[in-house]
Amino acid sequence: MKMPAIYIGHGAPLLLDDPIWSGELAQWAKELPRPQAILIISAHWESNPLTIGSIETGTPLIYDF
Question: CA 19, 3, 41, 9: dihedral to nearest 10 degrees?
Fold first, then answer.
């Protein structure tokens, strides 16, 4: 059986405080059969040795949501 795919981005934290959205997601998950495996793909990575993206002070944060 093929399972549905879902994309959950971490951009807008406001969805976590939305009881309707989180309730609908929880109900949807309850209706699915238990998966045999879960694949998670992330654009984040770790590097060795540790690297720093910016060494300038006062680098502004940019929010894209």
Answer: -20
